Every structure is written in C-alpha cells, then in structure tokens.
TrEMBL record:
<keyword id="KW-0472">Membrane</keyword>
<feature type="transmembrane region" description="Helical">
    <location>
        <begin position="111"/>
        <end position="132"/>
    </location>
</feature>
<feature type="transmembrane region" description="Helical">
    <location>
        <begin position="153"/>
        <end position="174"/>
    </location>
</feature>
<feature type="transmembrane region" description="Helical">
    <location>
        <begin position="208"/>
        <end position="227"/>
    </location>
</feature>
<feature type="transmembrane region" description="Helical">
    <location>
        <begin position="21"/>
        <end position="49"/>
    </location>
</feature>
<keyword id="KW-1133">Transmembrane helix</keyword>
<feature type="transmembrane region" description="Helical">
    <location>
        <begin position="84"/>
        <end position="105"/>
    </location>
</feature>
<dbReference type="Pfam" id="PF11318">
    <property type="entry name" value="DUF3120"/>
</dbReference>
<feature type="transmembrane region" description="Helical">
    <location>
        <begin position="234"/>
        <end position="255"/>
    </location>
</feature>
<dbReference type="InterPro" id="IPR021468">
    <property type="entry name" value="DUF3120"/>
</dbReference>
<keyword id="KW-0812">Transmembrane</keyword>
<protein>
    <submittedName>
        <fullName>DUF3120 domain-containing protein</fullName>
    </submittedName>
</protein>
<feature type="transmembrane region" description="Helical">
    <location>
        <begin position="55"/>
        <end position="72"/>
    </location>
</feature>
Length: 258
C-alpha cells in the first residue's frame, strides 16, 4: 500500500514538473508575428554580412542569386500555409537585387546608393495602393508574377529596409563621412583601418552624436509604432527598420576597434 502511495506521489510530482516546464517554455514560444519580426530583422542583416563580401569579388554571382530567392519565394507562395514566407522572400529579393547592382558596380559613388536601392519602390507603392495587395482568390503564381511585390508584407518589408538605408545615408551626409565612403571603396580591406578611424572622429563630434540620437529615436519610434499593430506586414516593417539601428551600431563599434 505504501509503495502504491509513493508511486502516486512521484507520478503527481512528475506531472506538475511537466506542466511547470510547459508553462515556463510558453513564455519563450514565438507567435507567427514574432517569427515574422525575427525573420525580417535577420534578412536585413544578411546583405550586410554575406552579400557585401560576396559582391565585392563575385558581383555577377550575387546578381544571379536574386533568381534563386525569387524561385524559392515562388515555391512558398504556391503553398497556402507558407505564403507569408514567400511574401517575405520576394521583398528580400528586391533588396538583394538592388544591393547586388550598387555594391557590385557603383559602390564608389554614394550619391547613386539610394536611387538604386529604391529600384523596387514603384512596385511597392503600387501594391499598397491596390487594396494592400488583396489576393484572396490567388492560389498559383507564375515565376514572372513573383517578381512583383504582391502584398503588404513583401512591400512593407522592402520599404522598411529602404527607409533604414535612407536614414543611414542621410546621417553620412549630415556628418560629412561621405568622403570616407568614397575612399573606403577604392582601397584594399587591409588599408581601411585609418580611414575608418578618421570617419569615427566625425561621428564622435557633438554634431555627429546629436544627429545619431535624433535619427535613431526616429527609427525606434517608427518601429515601436509598427509593433503596436496586429497585422503581420507591420511586424515585417518593424523588424526591417529596427535591425537597421542594430547593424549601424555594430558597424560603429567595429570601426572604432579598427
């Protein structure tokens, strides 16, 4: 009898532990909106840490990889339960395409940066204008259709990435480090440290710090505003914008250590 009671007590304790563990893990379980936010933030950092070195030596390879992103986006778009991920990849493909063109052939001229990055802007605005890309009856996509920014999610991810780029470029112009940009694009990586150190001196001035605070707060405010909305496309927008700040801060730290 005592053994039976002990077994029952042990079983009860194990059950309680399992429930406690499940409750604990539930706090860390991401919702679909959380996954979209995280994926958008991750995809904004991919061109910086992967595409930049790739496009410097193999620009054509980087350019043709755009077709791979579009193909993968098409596969996901044609599966109802994965359409949101296809949307995200289509928006990312346009950012990748613009980055391949600029950093592959025009990186020496910062004035060309934003116009080339905005190559998909008309399509993004058109998708938002057309009733937020409502495609409730659409179940199959041809390859060429995947080249279009079809939905609010793909459009707002692309626009969030573009906005972050625009604000970063604006900061470079306001602080006068555009000259250092041009110099960095003409020297080998091992000779970049002195140029980066000189650029950091401009950033550390009261003018540079003040503008950094203003623009960072602008992006933060916009991100938190978007996070306050329930729709998935706004989470993608917030992830793209917020990650811009993190990447810029990381580059500032790395430049200071150069």
């Amino acid at each position: 009898m005592q053994n039976a009671n002990n077994s029952g007590a042990i079983a009860t304790q194990l059950t309680l532990k399992r429930w406690s563990l499940a409750a604990f893990l539930a706090h860390f379980r991401l919702t679909q909106a959380g996954w979209i936010f995280g994926a958008a933030a991750f995809l904004v950092s991919v061109p910086v840490f992967v595409q930049a070195p790739l496009v410097r030596y193999y620009p054509w390879l980087s350019l043709f990889l755009t077709l791979g992103w579009i193909w993968l986006g098409k596969k996901l778009l044609n599966r109802a339960k994965n359409q949101i991920w296809g949307d995200l990849l289509v928006g990312f493909a346009w950012s990748w395409l613009a980055g391949s063109i600029y950093w592959g052939w025009y990186r020496w001229e910062p004035l060309y940066h934003l116009p080339i990055e905005a190559i998909g802007l008309p399509l993004a605005l058109l998708a938002l204008w057309r009733l937020w890309g409502d495609r409730s009856q659409k179940t199959e996509y041809a390859f060429w259709e995947c080249l279009m920014l079809q939905s609010p999610l793909s459009s707002l991810f692309y626009l969030g990435s573009l906005l972050g780029t625009a604000v970063t470029d604006l900061y470079f112009f306001l602080t006068g480090v555009i000259h250092h940009w041009r110099l960095l694009m003409t020297v080998e990586p091992e000779l970049a440290a002195p140029i980066l150190q000189e650029a950091i001196t401009f950033v550390r001035t009261p003018w540079g710090v003040a503008w950094g605070v203003v623009l960072a707060n602008f992006l933060l405010g916009l991100s938190f505003w978007a996070l306050g909305k329930q729709e998935l496309h706004w989470r993608a927008f917030a992830g793209a914008v917020l990650c811009t700040i993190l990447v810029d801060c990381l580059f500032a730290v790395l430049a200071s250590m150069a």
